[in-house]
């Protein structure tokens, strides 16, 4: 008897389904699913569990598997325990390396963390240093196939880790990349492009060790643990659901209280963090391990491991950096052709290995550093420019002003008898552009003009701005500005006989500004600034504006000495009106600035 074609398809489908085991990995204590656990066989990654702890394993005979996940004990099992007919539940026990016995500590957990936090700038951040090490980056799929491997030997010169944008400089000694791409996804990836981010991301003093954000987390002392032949204190932490804003991470902190060192951190984004942190939205799970070691002059960043998983396309990125040596007493001054700023490295550059019809063309290093810098020069130049557009709030001296007098106009006497008034606040538009001269020093030009009415104000300023980074959850900074400026302020009386009477004051002086800026994303910032103007000299004049020509498109001014007109301010006679504008103003601006 011959089977129909449809029957063959059905049998083929059933046969293929029978070639896989369907499992779910759970926490042995809570029963909760364990997402993104690695399942391997013969030291090769087979698959990774999804967000609900589920995975499919190819069916075979007498094969041993290992399940590993940070925070859980390694489990080895045989495929003989798996069922083809139904989903098999596999339980993982939490990591029991940490001793159950709790050691009494002399201070609270928060005090322990704060003590280390306070020592970070003294022991590490404020010391300029040179890190020499090796960075390895891998892009893999859930079959364990490494589509891209890259390895870079680099030197990193750092002065500070106070903010992520202080990236320092890096010199590449060698950079190699090997491609074996079997998925179209990876042809779009430039291996090595993440080098700029590795140091500054893990070196930031994350919120789980920041005393200002302790309320976002629940802490638990887990006891002492032997690490690197010494006993260290271990503190577990997780987001506090009772906090108005929950923390973004969960994990463990290993503290060496003798050295006052944040010795090791094992942590990952929680579900809350995945959606609240813009750096992790593209990934379903991201986890980190960072290690620090004491040295003669403090402690230093020794090792980092970073893994990101994206479930939608089985994307797995693993990165490692290990410090080989450190030099604190460095006066390194690399030449222009030797150094590559973090933002210039390989980012937006074609890979040095090209895939053509699945045939690999390999290049083991990048000898032409200057070529890379030329291609990224435009980005480097643009990253130094910031432009702002916003609203300026002028502070005025409220007053009612009356002008009374006689002036000569084309041989005739013209009677001036006009009044106007000013409010307390006026609003205008403000524009500025600034260029970065040094790390925290900018050259800035700004221009502002109010919305035209009976009282007009316009000014420009040209000067220097100094930026001070602040310790906050979202990147922000404090600005101090000193500029030379010119203010032109005037008010207009009612038109009469085809003429518009004006009184004008022109001020020259020094403008001092104090501002606050907060970064919204990688492109935009929001700024608020207070300005104070100190007058050096002032010129006043009274003039009549006469319009002529077709549709009155042209105009000319007839200037007069201001003392030819008598002035009354708020009903009192004065030789000249008071300053039209006060010495104060406020700016609210949206700033275009590439994240450095």
Commentary on this structure:
This is CarboxypepD_reg-like domain-containing protein. Residues 1-18 form the signal peptide. The structure is a single chain. With 596 residues, the chain is mostly beta strands. The chain has three domains: 16-92, Immunoglobulin-like (Sandwich); 109-382, outer membrane lipoprotein receptor (LolB), chain A (Clam); 384-593, Porin, CATH 2.40.160. 10% of the residues lie in helices and 53% in strands. The protein has six helices and 33 strands. The chain has helices spanning 5-17, 109-125, 195-203, 271-276, 369-375, 377-383, and strands spanning 20-27, 38-41, 44-48, 54-58, 64-68, 75-78, 88-92, 129-140, 146-158, 169-179, 217-227, 230-239, 249-256, 261-269, 285-295, 298-310, 315-327, 340-341, 354-356, 359-361, 385-396, 399-409, 412-422, 425-436, 441-450, 455-469, 476-492, 499-519, 524-548, 554-560, 565-569, 572-574, 581-593. The strands form six sheets. It has an eleven-stranded antiparallel sheet with strand order 11-12-13-14-15-16-17-8-9-10-18. An eight-stranded antiparallel barrel has the order 21-24-25-26-27-28-29-33. A hairpin with a 4-residue loop joins strand 13 and strand 14. The termini are far apart. Residues 1-17, 98-106, 163-167, 278-282 and 340-377 have low confidence and may be disordered.
Q: Tell me the domain tally.
A: 3
By CATH reckoning, the class of the largest domain would read Mainly Beta
Number of strands: 33
CATH fold field value of the largest domain: outer membrane lipoprotein receptor (LolB), chain A
What is the oligomeric state here? single chain
- Shape descriptor reads elongated
């Amino acid at each position: 008897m011959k089977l129909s074609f449809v029957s063959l398809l059905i049998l083929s489908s059933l046969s293929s389904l029978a070639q896989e085991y369907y499992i779910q990995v759970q926490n042995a204590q809570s029963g909760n699913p364990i997402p993104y656990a690695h399942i391997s066989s013969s030291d090769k990654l087979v698959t990774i569990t999804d967000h609900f702890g589920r995975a499919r394993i190819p069916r075979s005979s007498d094969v041993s598997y290992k399940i590993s996940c940070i925070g859980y004990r390694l489990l080895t099992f045989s495929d003989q325990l798996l069922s083809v007919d139904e989903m098999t539940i596999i339980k993982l026990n939490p990591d029991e390396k940490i001793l159950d016995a709790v050691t009494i500590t002399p201070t609270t957990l928060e005090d322990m963390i704060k003590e280390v936090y306070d020592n970070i700038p003294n022991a590490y951040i404020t010391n300029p240093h040179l890190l020499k090490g090796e960075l390895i980056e891998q892009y893999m799929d859930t079959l364990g196939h490494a589509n891209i491997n890259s390895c870079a030997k680099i030197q990193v010169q750092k002065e500070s880790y106070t903010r992520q944008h202080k990236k320092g400089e890096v010199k590449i000694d060698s950079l190699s990349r090997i491609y074996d791409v079997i998925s179209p996804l990876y042809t779009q990836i430039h291996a090595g492009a993440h080098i700029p981010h590795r140091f500054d991301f893990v070196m930031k003093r994350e919120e789980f060790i920041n005393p200002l954000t302790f309320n976002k987390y629940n802490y638990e002392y887990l006891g002492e643990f032997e690490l690197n032949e010494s006993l260290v204190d271990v503190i577990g932490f997780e987001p506090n659901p009772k906090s108005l804003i929950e923390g973004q991470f969960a994990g463990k902190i290993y503290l060496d209280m003798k050295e006052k060192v944040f010795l090791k951190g094992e942590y990952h984004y929680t579900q809350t963090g995945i959606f609240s942190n813009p750096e992790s939205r593209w990934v379903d799970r991201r986890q980190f391990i960072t290690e620090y070691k004491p040295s003669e002059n403090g402690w230093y960043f020794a090792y980092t491991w970073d893994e990101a998983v994206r479930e939608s396309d089985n994307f797995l990125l693993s990165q490692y950096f290990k410090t080989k040596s450190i030099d604190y007493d460095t006066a390194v001054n690399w030449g222009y052709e030797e150094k590559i700023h973090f933002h210039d490295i390989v980012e937006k550059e074609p890979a040095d290995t090209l895939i053509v019809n699945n045939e690999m063309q390999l290049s083991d290093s990048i000898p032409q550093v200057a070529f890379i810098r030329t291609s990224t020069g435009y980005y480097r130049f643009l990253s130094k420019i910031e432009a702002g557009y916003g609203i300026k709030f002028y502070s005025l001296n409220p007053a009612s002003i009356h002008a009374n007098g006689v002036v000569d106009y084309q041989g005739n006497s013209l009677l001036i008898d006009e009044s106007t008034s000013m409010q307390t606040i006026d609003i205008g538009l403000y524009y500025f552009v600034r260029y970065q001269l040094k790390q925290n020093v900018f050259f800035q030009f700004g221009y502002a003009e109010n919305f035209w009415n009976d009282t007009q104000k316009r000014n420009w300023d040209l000067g220097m701005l100094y930026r001070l980074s602040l310790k906050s959850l979202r990147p922000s900074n404090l600005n101090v500005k000193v500029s030379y400026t010119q203010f032109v302020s005037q008010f207009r009386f009612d038109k009469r006989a085809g003429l518009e009477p004006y009184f004008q004051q022109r001020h020259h002086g020094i403008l001092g500004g104090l501002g606050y800026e907060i970064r919204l994303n990688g492109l935009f910032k929001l700024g608020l600034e207070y300005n104070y103007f100190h007058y050096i000299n002032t010129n006043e004049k009274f003039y009549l504006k006469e319009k002529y020509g077709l549709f009155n498109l042209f105009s000319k001014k007839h200037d007069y000495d201001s003392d030819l007109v008598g002035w009354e301010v708020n009903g009192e006679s004065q030789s000249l009106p008071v300053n039209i504008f006060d010495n104060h103003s406020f700016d609210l601006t949206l700033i275009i600035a590439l994240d450095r």
